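Continuing the series of single-chain predictions for the mutant panel. This is the parent chain; the variants come on the following pages.
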Amino acid sequence: MTLRVIAIDGPAASGKSSTAGLVAERLGWAHLDSGALYRALTLAALEERTGGRGRAGAGEGGEGWNASRILALAESLPVRLVRVGEVFRPEVAGVDVEEAIRSERVTRYVSTVAAIPEIRTWVNAQQKRAVEGGGGRGVVVDGRDIGTVVFPEAPLKIFLTATPDERARRRLSQRGEAVDGELVRRESQALAARDTADSNRPIAPLKPASDAVLLDTTALTLEQQVARVVELARGLFPG
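Parent structure:
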């Protein structure tokens, strides 16, 4: 049976999640945001470190993250992806944390947690389990290593790109900030630095799969890029 998975990868602010969510909606498939599970783990670890105070504290720095402790916490709470309709919702101890995991506090530390090899192995296994538990129903998964590591057998792999300046403009707009030249320059530099770090990390570096469709979205609207992926999907997954 053909694996009904579309893998959408790309750098930060390339539009992965927005595109994946809309593609899933058009196809009647489910959407799985791989970053949500890393963020949920990070949130759980931070809450444990700070005693649930919900703010920065003495034990919260990026040093000394212990993989065994985080994974034990993930199993005991538990930290899970739960399918609700056509979306996989991140939960910690049975509580929906979709909003909480998007906080600046979690964003500050999620890259540190996601870089731990044991954490990546656990998250990858959870994602596979979530998809396989769908009874063969289609799932659109977005992340940075979905097509290369998590689902290398996915029939359709998309790698989204856009210039750092364009991604900076999109990110600033999403935050509701003024899109002026100096802010775009600073945000663009930050994104370019992250691209370099993600592309050169020893574990699951950011790169397109050898058989991925490269889609430069710099000059495309969201509707145009969604339409292109849907067109490719319908050619591969008829019916």
